[in-house]
Amino acid sequence: MTTQSRELFPYVPITEFLSVDIPENSLILCDIDDTVLYQEYVRQVCQMGIHTVYIVSRAVDPTGFSDMLARIEASNSVLMFLTARGSSSHNTTKGNLSYVGIDPQRYAIHYTGSLISKGEYIDRFIDITPYNHVIFIDDQIGNLETVHHFVPANKLKQYLCTARHTILPYYKPLV
Ligand SMILES: [Mg+2]
Description:
about 180 residues, 8 strands, Rossmann fold, globular
């Protein structure tokens, strides 16, 4: 078994969406979990001492995100969500987005289902040719790396969200 060294590629680490530059006619591909929202476990204890734990979605940076939405509209750009969730979570995902104030009817949501990398998904299923720029926003550096392999460098700008980053096992794409 051989180990490959990781390739260096450009990206900008961010903690807020105000730092995302949106040039004219861009396609913004944005992750959902730990990028625009995160799940919080809330524990409720009733008088009988019974604990109920439930999960609620929280926005990572609501003011920064709505500012970015306004800039996307002003620059004739398009936002799509690209998540590793499965497509069977569509109703849940729409509910999570609504809960944090994002209208899920206005934006396409793409699901890789963790079956292929995000880079490969873009290559196979998203037509980037009408756009001057592809802006990719995600909290997993492994996802940024796969996108780096599939989108031409002169068209691509990548942002790594570090505000709610959770460490997942590093994923090496088969390319
Ligand atoms: Mg994520």
